[in-house]
Amino acid sequence: MLGPVILAASRSDRMRRLISAAPVTKPVVDRFIPGETVDQVVPIIEDLTAKGLELTMDVVGEDITTPEQAAAARDAYLALVDRLKELDLGTRAEMSVKLSMFGQALEGGHELALANVRPVVEAAAAIGTTVTLDAEDHTTLDSMFAIHEELRKDFPQTGCVIQAYLFRTEADARRLAANGSRVRLVKGAYKEPAEVAYQQKAETDKAYVRILGILMEGEGYPMIGSHDPRIISIAQELARRAGRKLDEYEFQMLYGIRSDEHLRLAAEGHRMRVYTAYGTDWYGYFMRRLAEKPANLRFFARSVLTKG
Fold it and tell me: Which of 95, 192, 241, 265 could form a disulfide with 197 if both were Cys (CB 3.0 to 4.6 A apart)?
């Protein structure tokens, strides 16, 4: 199982230095992260939306160790909102945020993260879009869900993410579906202990389908975060059985992965949202993309062999 090994490497400073210094790394990273600044990703935003796609934007970076860094992360998202407003794309692009970037792991982190993320949610609402709170490792989820609930009091369109490989997620899905939340369902990309998470892909896949059924039958707005053709087909069938129209759920996939499928789903009338990350602190995000899917790792390995 290479996934856990790669996830361990994502937390290694030595591996970070080695991979960052490799000449082949940047071209491969560019497949998943199309820029380091807002200006660099504006052409990507314009191109994707012109093709009938929607976006969720992520300013990458999770190693926040000071309140000042957390405030800088907040300001980076506020700058993104300003650019989306200038482009008149507020209704086509939302934002995804990790509360760790907003200071969640610091002393008094729950209150600090809420204080930092609220102005981003307010600014997003002002231009007609919204924010989705990304899920991180299981120790952070109670705080994330509490912040989600608090934000929804004033901004009910605020979304959150749940992870199929965690045992708790079926119960979380029932609660969120009952209160009408926007929920992105993913399989999960953090190394979690056997006490809290399924360890085998087959178990996670079965849980994903069960949870997706709960969301489709509920009162919320399901967002299917998967590149798996089988999951996509099952999602379409579950939506049909639940009597959902095409604008009552959406698919979400990562920038740079199965781009032809993005266009195919959009052409069929589905809402198709591309998760597009940018920023200078790309290492952790990149390593999790490799860990999630063997094809991503093979792509990186082929590039190394070709360039090396």
Answer: 192
Confidence of residue 34 (pLDDT cuts 50, 70, 90): confident
Which residue carries 């609402």 as its tokens?
125
Kindly tell me if the per-residue pLDDT of 91 is higher than 50.
yes
| pTM, entire model | 0.87
Q: Is 228 a residue of the active site?
A: no
Among 272, 207, 201, 260, which Cα is nearest to 236's? 272
Phi, psi (deg, nearest 5) at residue 236:
-65, -40
Q: How far is it, in rounded angstroms, from Cα 51 to Cα 246?
A: 18
Using DSSP bridges, classify how beta strands 182-186 and 159-163 pair: parallel, antiparallel or unpaired: parallel
In tens, the pLDDT along 70-80 reads 999 999 999 99
Would residue 210 show up in a list of annotated catalytic residues for this protein? no
Residue 158 CB coordination number (10 Å): 24
Active-site pick, 58, 134, 172, 205: 134
Residue position matching structure tokens 């605020």: 158
| Dist CA 47 CA 93 (whole Å) | 12
Question: In terms of C-beta density within 10 A (0-12 exposed, 13-18 middle, 19 or more buried), how is residue 170 classed?
Answer: middle
